[in-house]
Amino acid sequence: MVYLARKNGAVIHHTDMEAMKTMDGIGKAEMEVSDEEFEAAGSLARIIDGKIFIGKTDEEKQRDDAEVRIRQLKAKLAETDYIAAKIAEGSATAKEYAEQIAERQAWRAEINELEELTA
Predict the structure, then answer these.
(1) Tens of pLDDT, residues 13-51
(2) Is the N or C terminus of the chain more exposed, i.e. has fewer CB atoms within 10 Å?
(3) Treating both helix axes as pointing N-terminal to C-terminal, what angle do 82-89 and 98-118 enclose, rounded to 10 degrees?
């Protein structure tokens, strides 16, 4: 069990109520969660809107998901960079790679949209 309480505007947590009392002078936890629940929340606890909140907010999760997607799309772009080199060197034509070029443009557009959301 993880015991959470506020002290000096921050959230403190202990796995032992006696330790919370001895170390922080707090005799009663404001919130109790299982060890598993606390770990699943990234061991993140803070005060939001005057209440103890564990884990990330939906907005933070969406931003994290967007950042992961941006990395994935940039990796796809990097994997297909050879196309531009082949076209520039004259060993291939844009017509031969029209489908991949369209995909790359779509990936860039998605990256731009996601970057606006994460800014």
Answers:
(1) 999 999 999 999 999 999 999 999 999 999 999 999 999
(2) C
(3) 130
Quote the domain boundaries for residue 26.
Answer: 2-54
Structural domain count of the chain: 2
Whole-model pTM: value is 0.72
The two structure tokens encoding residue 105: 């443009």
Same structural domain for residues 70 and 109?
yes
Cβ pair 62, 117 in contact under 8 A: yes
Relative to beta strand 31-33, strand 45-48 is unpaired
Q: Please indicate, yes or no, whether residues 62 and 43 belong to a single structural domain of this protein.
A: no
Whole-number Å distance between alpha carbons of 71 and 73: 5
For residue range 46-78, list pLDDT tens digits in order.
Answer: 999 999 999 999 999 999 999 999 999 999 999
Give the separation between CA 1 and CA 34, rounded to whole angstroms. 4
Q: What is the number of residues in the chain?
A: 119
